[in-house]
Amino acid sequence: MFSAHTVSVVREAEYALMARVPDGALMRRAAAGLAAECVRLLPRVYGSRVVLLVGGGDNGGDALYAGALLAARGAAVRALLAGGSAHEGGVGALRSAGGRVRKFADGEADGAEMFDADLIVDGLVGIGGRGGLREPHAALAVLASNAPVPVVAVDVPSGVDADTGEVVGAAVRADATVTFGTHKPGLFVDPGAERAGRVRLADIGLGPELPGPGLVCPQAVDIASLLPTPGAESDKYRRGVLAVRAGSDPYRGAAVLCVGGALRTGVGMVRFGGGKGVADQVIGRWPEAVADFRDPQSSTDLSPGRVAAAVIGPGRGTHPANADELRALLDSDVPVLVDADGLTLLTGDGGGPLAGLLRERTAHTLLTPHAGELARLLDADRADVEARRLEHAARAADRFRCTVLLKGSTTVVAHPGAPAVANPTGTPLLATAGSGDVLAGSVGALLASGLPAREAAMCGAYLHGRAASLARGGAPISASDLLDALPLAVAELSRSRRV
Ligand SMILES: NC(=O)C1=CN([C@@H]2O[C@H](COP(=O)(O)OP(=O)(O)OC[C@H]3O[C@@H](n4cnc5c(N)ncnc54)[C@H](O)[C@@H]3O)[C@@H](O)[C@H]2O)[C@@H](O)CC1
Ligand SMILES: Nc1ncnc2c1ncn2[C@@H]1O[C@H](COP(=O)(O)OP(=O)(O)O)[C@@H](O)[C@H]1O
Ligand SMILES: [K+]
């Protein structure tokens, strides 16, 4: 599990560590880690051309000391200083090692050194960056991103907010980022994650000073250890029965995809509740599902003994009868996942009785909105939700006192009082109709297997993203392809558990 800490936490930890180590030791450790990554990225060090982009703070200092280490090994290192001042010790070290330093003039559009370089090191701003990049930093960031040369970012790509991943205006697009002491949340959450490239953590001895993380990014082994596996004594009831309330006459496919997502993730049984037209379609595709034609609003089917969890919403409709159905589910003691039309009902909940029920629930509850749905739930702007995904998911989790999985370019999971989760898997190919219905079924299956909502959400999002990558080897996929690939993703994780 990768851990990330916010800037204020990192600063506090750094102060505590600095009190115990000699002056300048941390920067030298950081520079050594950065230089090692540069060596990995260069075809060879001796005779290579390295350009450092250097801002006025310690981020620039790291770049300068790393440049000095490379210059000492025979690289031709040039530093372009953005602004009037730069870390004095770093400038001195680079010059002593044979590197050259020049100021990048305001309004200069050239930066020719960059286009001839073998590597560009982005030391414009790190965790001290505030707001969008100013000039000449912004111009340098654009030139570096356009040069056909690998870029390594120091601590965070300049222009990316380290805490949120937000990008306002120009930002460096790095091939690799060397981050110090701990990961920063913005390296795992888009749009920042997309700018960071491959992220490597350089140890500067900060670990003992750090409290628990603010955000985690689970890896295959973490998901594998959470994933329920049937044991010798398992039967279909012990493995978990999932109630699916998805689909309606106009949207029958949503029911088929949601039930399929559950079955292909692994569940004891799916009980599908809905009208005859849609139920026939579900059973036609998935004969192993059990169709329930009883009044869907009746809560008699919702005792925890009968079903272990329920999914409601995909393609279900937003009529008053659907609101009654949702109310009955929220009123039960069964873990519930609310998606799509279920979220719309929550949004249009005049006076908030449904939201009130949500807040009072003691059973696990999970909302799975995309950015548009979350914006409506919070009465916020969709663009703001996409720019600052963690903040908005956390706000919804606090407001509704439940777990929130926000879908999109980076899927994030928020749960009151627990570290946020950034999902590392997935591809933009997932942006295709019906893939959210598959996710809802898949996460529902994990809830029914007994995982708590936060863990079910992180496992389901991980599997869904892996399934998309495995489905057609990078070619476009449809939601149905995801169903075929989900078992491959589960099997891949099972293998990683055995290693
Ligand atoms: N504090 C420590 O113990 C350590 C810090 N380290 C490095 O130090 C960095 C933090 O250094 P600083 O606190 O000096 O901060 P930074 O160097 O990240 O940024 C501050 C500088 O950037 C300028 N700046 C801020 N926002 C800007 C914007 N939007 N446009 C243009 N210029 C902007 C400021 O005027 C200032 O000159 C870390 O990211 C890391 O690279 C490492 O050396 C490890 C140890
Ligand atoms: N740009 C993207 N990159 C990665 N995943 C994405 C992207 N856009 C959407 N997704 C994923 O695709 C799925 C789409 O779900 P959703 O928006 O509910 O669509 P639908 O309602 O058509 O099923 C979600 O799992 C989401 O995280
Ligand atoms: K940087």
TrEMBL record:
Its cofactor is Mg(2+); K(+). PROSITE patterns: YJEF_C_2, YJEF_C_3, YJEF_N. It catalyses: (6S)-NADPHX + ADP = AMP + phosphate + NADPH + H(+); (6R)-NADHX = (6S)-NADHX; (6R)-NADPHX = (6S)-NADPHX; (6S)-NADHX + ADP = AMP + phosphate + NADH + H(+). Transmembrane segments: none annotated. Keywords: ATP-binding, Isomerase, Lyase, Metal-binding, Multifunctional enzyme, NAD, NADP, Nucleotide-binding, Potassium. Gene3D superfamilies: 3.40.1190.20, YjeF N-terminal domain (3.40.50.10260). Residues 10-212 form the YjeF N-terminal domain. It holds the Pfam family Carb_kinase. Residues 219-493 form the YjeF C-terminal domain. (6S)-NADPHX binds at residues 58-62, 126-132, 155, 254, 315, 370, 437. Catalyzes the dehydration of the S-form of NAD(P)HX at the expense of ADP, which is converted to AMP. Together with NAD(P)HX epimerase, which catalyzes the epimerization of the S- and R-forms, the enzyme allows the repair of both epimers of NAD(P)HX, a damaged form of NAD(P)H that is a result of enzymatic or heat-dependent hydration. Homotetramer. This is Bifunctional NAD(P)H-hydrate repair enzyme. It comes from Nocardiopsis codii. The gene is nnrD.
